[in-house]
Amino acid sequence: MREIDYVTMQDGMRVAYICYRPRSDRHPTVFLYSPYEASATRFEIAKPFLDAGYAFVGANFPATGCSEGVLETWFDRKEGIYGAEVVEWIANQPWSNGDVGMIGNSSAASVQMWVAAEQPPHLRAIVGAGMFDAYEWIYQGGMLQVYCLKWAFTSQFVDQASGVSDRIKAGDTECSAIRGSDRQLVKRSFYDEIRKHPLNDEWWDSIYLAREEVAGKIQVPTMLIGAWQDRYAVRESARVMTQLMPNVEHKRLVLIDGDHSGTGALGFQAPRLVNDERMKFLDRWVKGINNGAEEEPAVTVYWEAWEPDGDPKKQVAGWVTHHKAWPEPTVERRRYYLTVDARILPDKPGASLYDGQRAYLYPTGAELYGTNEQFSAKPYQQGVLNYRTDVAVSDMTLLGSPQVTLYLSIDDGDDTDLELTLKDVGPDGNVLFLQSGQLRASLRAIDEQRTSSDEIVHLFRKREKLEPGCIYDIRMSISPIGHVVRKGHCLELTVGAPNPIIKQSIGSFPIGSASINRVYHSEKYPSSIVLPVVPGAKAEAPAPERGIQRAKPCRKETEFEPGGLPTG
């Protein structure tokens, strides 16, 4: 049966919810909590959980949808307080057996951190996919992502309206009076706030999840699901699990190829492998079934996952590996050097023909990696620098975050933006996008406390402008990746500029002036890339057809183009 109603919080405000449940008996409950359409969740979203023996509750954050509440701005602790109260309300209903687990993607994943930090007694487990967080999500690499600006606007003014409309159509007679009243108020819109805070200041600290006051207080079993091409979310999921959950005994990290919206989807759009992992975890820790989940290693990696016929329910992977920890302890971080003749070599440059500099015209070259159609438009070659490894004589398995050091100068202006892309090039000329990384050069200062062997983390607290002609040491990480560069293939690194055209939620306006940017390659200025290599690991299945995997577009190239401007 379906129930649409409100639950009253301790401060007198009411949270809108929808509940689907069997007509008899008491059941464990799955709880979806978000700012979008959760309190008007469609039956097809709830059905798989009902079929698995759960009741289902969807509720909106305070001051979103039809929920009452007064917030300073989104991602306020009050979202966690209200969510914890809803958990306890669920546990005390006559149709509930008292066991509650949370699910959700994106915002509905991040808020689980806030709820679990309140430690409601009847919360048994949380499962979050595509979890993002604060500054580094909106300002990736210190650059405001225009897609995130669009998200903030539509989330507040469009997506909520859709959920409200559906709820009213379903019979809610109170929502119209709540909307726009003094019982539903966000004092400062998130859309406006993010533009007021271009640096990672105290305001961002106040809504940051990856800290002891939030993630560090979680105690319930936790599963985090990250898609490799959901760049920031996969970085944050790995960071939170490995560094900030000391009190969580049973924690899992699931990593897989995919994008932000698809990997964490619910209902009929839920990808099979992800859904199976989610259900098994819920069954163990919410339903209490002894299915062996607690015996599984902490990290599961699905390699080369894809969806035959575009059907998420048919999702398959080439193979799967399990790991005791993240980063994988056996990973060797191998440094390769970028050379003046556009190669990536294991030998450090000396006084040889590999010394020198390469130049490109900034900001004219950008890789568009959102779709196969976008990716087919190669970047303007004089606006990028391309580097390639030699052809691999055996499989090279990458698992972790590549790190890049560039010795860089500009000839005009006081800043520049870097966007790096990593690609796999096959012997047939097929170029497959793997991963990217972004950094504004003036925000290059490193957070030494949070930086680890696997990841370079930046402070983003203060701008340090560049002076034309000076050479700067720029260190940055490319987001984590799991990929096998097969025998006969090459790995290609491209140095270029960002572009406001949105590709997989990435898109920003390049800063600074038109400039001739130079990258240096010498014994004194050894530009390099560190690759996280699993020694001895090889591909365990044939590669899927290129261009059919989520968020991994492909194009054909007849020959290698080094790119850049002549410097002779």
UniProtKB/TrEMBL annotation:
Segments forming domain Xaa-Pro dipeptidyl-peptidase C-terminal: 279-530
Pfam family, any one: Peptidase_S15
Cited Gene3D superfamilies: alpha-amino acid ester hydrolase ( Helical cap domain), alpha/beta hydrolase, Galactose-binding domain-like
GO-annotated molecular function: dipeptidyl-peptidase activity
Family matches, as SMART domains: PepX_C
InterPro entries named in the record: AB_hydrolase_fold, CocE/Ser_esterase, Galactose-bd-like_sf, Xaa-Pro-like_dom, Xaa-Pro_dipept_C
Entry keyword set: Hydrolase
Spans annotated as Disordered: 539-568
Name recorded for this polypeptide: Xaa-Pro dipeptidyl-peptidase C-terminal domain-containing protein
The organism of origin for this protein: Mesorhizobium prunaredense
Top-level taxonomy: Bacteria, Pseudomonadati, Pseudomonadota, Alphaproteobacteria, Hyphomicrobiales
